[in-house]
Amino acid sequence: PDHGVAEVFSPMSATLALVKRLAGKPFQNAKLHEMLRELPDHGVGRRFTRAVWHHPDCYYQITRVKPAGMDSVRAWGKLCWRGEMQEPVKIPGLRKRDWTLIEEPLKSTQ
Known about the structure:
five-stranded antiparallel β-sheet; 2 helices; alpha+beta; 5 strands
């Protein structure tokens, strides 16, 4: 039984927590800064879109992430707007709760 003793943090427990979260519920309608903190390499190379963008070719591809305190990050990425990729910029709205990770297609092994 739990007697109010806090769990000890370990890299393995953090990895297991991430696996459980990814398996149970995909990253959708969440704050981007929270998702980036949980992903391997802080999500660099991953693509994220916002719920208010209704065009399928609108997303940020993360290029760089920098910690900004205990519970936040700063992130830069290339904005793809309606299919046109732009230069990397600092991503605004990291704390808005409408970001979704775009799942990468499975690569064929043929």
